[in-house]
Specification:
The structure is a single chain. The protein has about 140 residues and is α+β, with helices and mostly antiparallel strands. The protein has one domain. Helix content is about 35%, strand content about 35%. Strands 1, 2, 3, 4, 5, 6, 7 and 8 form an 8-stranded antiparallel β-sheet that branches. Helix 3 crosses helix 4. The longest helix is centred in the C-terminal third of the chain and has 23 residues. About 15% of the residues have low confidence.
Length: about 140
């Protein structure tokens, strides 16, 4: 799945859009107010079996729409059929972790006080680098239901 490693359900994106936080046009997500654009990849998360057995081991996994096509699976709305197995899936997108880190950093920068005068630039940069996982975690806590 390349650098895409966070599944965001379609319902969450719809909620954010209704709240005026984001705009999604095609596969391009724009964080409103910050004018940041991020590419999304259409995907589904396999939730449960509707019929058959999970021979392919897909339960609780996320697959892109392209991967489904390559597997020979049929996808329609909230269902995927692969051979004799039918799955209930959740539609959404894979978001690039680096994009979310940049989005989190941008939202944190607006609320973060300016660096103290005379503070070395290298220590500020090191602090930001070390805080990256925390920014991502905070972005997700603030924005995912």
């Amino acid at each position: 799945m390349a650098d895409y490693d966070l599944f965001v359900p379609q319902s969450v994106l719809a909620k954010w859009s209704e709240q005026g936080r984001i705009s999604v046009v095609g596969n391009l997500l724009t964080i409103l107010g910050e004018n940041k654009n991020f590419a999304l990849t259409s995907a589904v998360r396999f939730l449960k079996m509707e019929a058959g057995e999970d021979v392919a081991g897909l339960l609780q996994k996320v697959k892109t729409i392209d991967a489904l096509k390559q597997m020979g699976a049929e996808h329609y709305m909230e269902s995927v059929i692969l051979g004799e197995s039918a799955y209930q899936v959740q539609q959404g997108f894979l978001a690039e972790a680096n994009a979310l880190r940049r989005a989190a950093a941008a939202s944190q920068a607006a609320s973060k006080p300016a660096a103290k005068p005379g503070a070395p630039a290298s220590s500020a940069a090191e602090g930001e680098k070390n805080a990256e996982p925390d920014l991502l975690a905070q972005f997700l806590l603030d924005n995912l239901p």
